[in-house]
Amino acid sequence: MGVTKSDLFTETQNELANYAKVLAHPARIAIIQFLLKTNTCCNSTLVEDLGLAQATISQHLKELKNVGIIQGTVEGVSVNYCINPEKWHYIKKMLSDLFDGYDPTYCSNC
Amino acid sequence: MGVTKSDLFTETQNELANYAKVLAHPARIAIIQFLLKTNTCCNSTLVEDLGLAQATISQHLKELKNVGIIQGTVEGVSVNYCINPEKWHYIKKMLSDLFDGYDPTYCSNC
DNA sequence: TATTTTTATCGTAATATTGCAATGTAATAT
DNA sequence: ATATTACATTGCAATATTACGATAAAAATA
């Protein structure tokens, strides 16, 4: 049906899935990596750098902002985007908690 | 269009996005967490545990298997799934490389 | 004021994802 | 041989995502 049955899952499961979803597009990964390098960027810079249309970049930025991984501050005509440090570390922790939860020494059949 | 312009991005960006995509559904997170707890599971166990239809679980398992995060071994009538340790650590490293790439002390405007 | 620059939003088309009933398949049990 | 059990696959409907042109809004500039 295309609609996820969120009510079947825990809050953590839905939350993790939502964070993963925002990372699940190369353009958004590229935007994040760009920010890791330059610390700040605006829509027009990304349009040049990524080669996607302005409306498309704007949409990706919106999704990143919606989950809180980036934040934007109006700077005259343009908007400066940067990583939200608190959210960044929160997501980082959720993911490492998940990935640290596996100990292969307990596995007998693989 | 619904189609990602993969050719605009680096291999790493596409790869990261693909791994994120497979984590971008609470059912698949739930399956992984189930495996972290029990180390092994089969389709029917998950159908009981998650409350999704057998065909749906089968589809989610297929996606997890396609990116290599889990592997299945036929055990008589049923199929035992478990985490693929190499892939697990590979994905874990890719994600931590991304998330370790941020140093808030360099950021002046947030 | 008119123009330019930058971004957001709307509308739309193409494609992808989610979920499940129905059906197919393969191994085991009766 | 037939039935049962466990999964995979197919086909379909509903919804979500991706991409972008067109347009709107808001600030800076001529």
TrEMBL record, chains A, B:
Key words, A-Z: DNA-binding, Transcription, Transcription regulation
UniProt xrefs under Pfam families: HTH_5 (PF01022)
GO molecular function: DNA binding; DNA-binding transcription factor activity
Gene3D superfamilies: Winged helix-like DNA-binding domain superfamily/Winged helix DNA-binding domain (1.10.10.10)
KW Transcription regulation (keyword) present: yes
InterPro entries membership: ArsR-like_HTH, HTH_ArsR_DNA-bd_dom, HTH_MetalResp_TranReg, WH-like_DNA-bd_sf, WH_DNA-bd_sf
Domain of life where this protein originates: Bacteria
Name by which UniProt lists this protein: DNA-binding transcriptional ArsR family regulator
Chain ranges of the HTH arsR-type domain: 8-106
